[in-house]
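Sat 14:20. Reprocessing the chain from the morning session after the first attempt stalled halfway. Input below, unchanged.
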Amino acid sequence: MRRTRILTVLLALAAGLLAGSPPTALAAGPASRATVAADSYTWKNARIDGGGFVPGIVFNRAEKDLAYARTDIGGAYRWQESSHTWTPLLDHVGWDDWGHTGVVSVASDPVDPDRVYAAVGTYTNDWDPTNGAVLRSPDRGATWEKTDLPFKLGGNMPGRGMGERLAVDPHDNDVLYLGAPSGHGLWRSTDAGVTWSEVTAFPNPGNYAQDPGDTSGYASDNQGITWVTFDESTGGGAGTPTGTVYVGVADKENAVYRSTDAGATWERLAGQPTGYLAHKGVLDAENGYLYLAYSDTGGPYDGGKGRLYRYATATGTWTDISPVAEADTYYGFSGLTVDRQHPGTVMATAYSSWWPDTQIFRTTDSGATWTQAWSYTSYPDRENRYTMDVSSSPWLTWGANPSPPEQTPKLGWMTEALEIDPFDSDRMMYGTGATVYGTENLTDWDDEGGTFTIEPMVRGLEETAVNDLASPPSGAPLLSALGDVGGFRHTSLTEVPSMMYTSPNFTSTTSLDFAETKPDVVVRAGNLDSGPHIAFSTDNGANWFGGTDPAGVSGGGTVAAGADGSRFVWSPEGTGVQYTTGFGTSWRASAGIPAGAIVESDRVDPATFYGFKSGTFYVSTDGGATFTASSATGLPAGDSVRFKTLPGGEGDVWLAGGAADGPYGLWHSTDGGETFTRLPGVDAADTVGFGKAAPGASYQTLFTSAEIGGVRGIFRSTDEGATWTRVNDDAHQWGWTGAAITGDPRVYGRVYVATNGRGVVYGDTSDTGGGTGPGPGPDPGPTGACEVTYTVTNQWPGGFQADVRLTNTGTSAWNGWSLDWSFPGGQQVTQMWNAEHRRSGAVVTASNVGWNAVVAPGASVGFGFTGSWSGTNAEPEGFAVAGRACPTAT
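Finished this time. Tokens:
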């Protein structure tokens, strides 16, 4: 992938994400409240495997096979050795705290491996309305507590590949340090992350900014304190803080500081190189060497010169151990790791070597000599010490056929995370701009003529930002429009697609649509450095061909396909709304509609299209040639709006959106947008979509990301919005979900949700009856039949996590419920979500919270918890609801 392409993608993505960011507060909503029930959904990702930048990988040095990965916008993950997959840890982050899905650093406690910490926050400028926080978990990320900070953190800011900025003292694990950006200095906690205070004795908060003249505050922010490293050889014993601490600073003249008195005083390391930033500082305490990877910029995209240095901690001697001469570098160094089994073995990456490929260097003699992952034989031919197997993620070839010396798949780009497993010299993982790669035969590198195998180690880690979704009535069940990787035709939700959209391959797809009565006709619009910004398919998205851009087009915008696929309306960036018949060989300007309007098509009449801009709804009945403003009033005044038209319902339009300082909610029109009615009780709504009608229902199922009944979540209605069911829960929120939502026209209850960094999540219901609301006159409590599903979803030494689903198999609705059980092995519940819990002797009682009290006949309610165990962790021997035995599902 070209450097210019990545830069364009990131800047467009950053702008796009923030343009759709959720408001920080809500205006007062309607006085009436919607009726809200709850359903138990099973949530999964539509598999892509990766798709975004992984700037950090952290192995625990006390326990084998315990590792974490951090992403810039998609949360943090824990490695599952048994399945070689990653488990997401921050799906509980909600709408108001969406910025906490950006992770600037992760620290795994080297004394107590159950403890893990995450420093979270996405942007340090005003794009992110909330301050950063430090999350702390006593159970490896199954549950978290949060300490808010008085400043912002930048998980998606320049310099995010440096680190780790958060570190736990290996001798006194109640002591943690955090390097802050924006001139806020170095911070310390002495109570295991509960409270934090600035280390006022630290002399330098940093001064480097990527672009001091950037008025947005994005590239002009001081990148601050970039890493903290303890010298464990200087500890005074357990419970006594480590004496010597090294800290990296974003200051090209003063990049490394040291304290030899546990942080009381600090000094600049004498004799250090200048003119560079130290991206990483990794200590080999056994041999007394601090290794440093330097670049002339902060990354992760830029970097033209770099050096590797070794600092002898006992003598203060600096040695340039760079594998190539400075004049021969066109990149900076960042990824840096020491083999803890053989500390003289060190590896580093040329993270900003975009073309022809990244480079990885390896030494087995502490930097005296180096080998590299690939080298030229006779230019442009190259010889690789590795082979690559991307069969598990075939799209990583990008469908490319480059000329030598470039190869596909690439070894990587943005390779700032590089770690050798501290317990296994053969295992190494490294992050790229699109995936996590790894090997389990790394030491074959050192054999004469030997090669090691690199393959994706990314399953379960989903990090795409989703811009649009479509689920056609035939063909592939899902089409996605994504940032960075363009998007996919998902013929299976449980398998990785073979390739993203190509011919052309947009850097980001901003909008897509299919013809409702001819779903093999698909159109997409997106961003591209050079080439068309629109593409068409006549085989349901399997193959594509580019259209022709009108003059002035600079970005994808939104696009709509006529119901029969005979015409299209496009609202690109850079010019006004356009229309065409056929497949975009020529475009004409639409009249009567402003530039930048959002456009959609009627799903029945092929000549009817709709638009929205700044509070006004527009209608065209001549294929997009002319639009007329409707007489509808009271709609949101801004442009944070998304609207959809009902399949099979001519003139049936649903509109969601708004802002805190004006109308904000969900509106419905049955006369083609001439008038709209606001739905009562929907406090705020940001997306709307349709799925298969419930059994016995005549109207398609509605889905929305909204606040209803005072609760923010993903909601479903089977009765045209009269009543609503929340289908997600507090453990499944995924930060911001305001870009797109759609149901599946072929599977009742299935919903696809766009996230900002966690990929496409989809949910399936346990409610086969199709009920939404509680129905009239619910019983005061559960007296009928029930069934329980109890599943241990994760287990580790001394702890576990479980999900419970309670189903009402009777004929009457419940209005309030409680479930009792006894643990046979003395297990203890430590934390529970989506239910209250209490314990009396060996009996645990879980009872409803306010929003999930009502359970209709045939419906289910779900909750989860973490617990402790010793000896065995057997399943409870029996469950009971209101004193009645409740059998477990088989």
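The first helix runs from residue 3 to 19.
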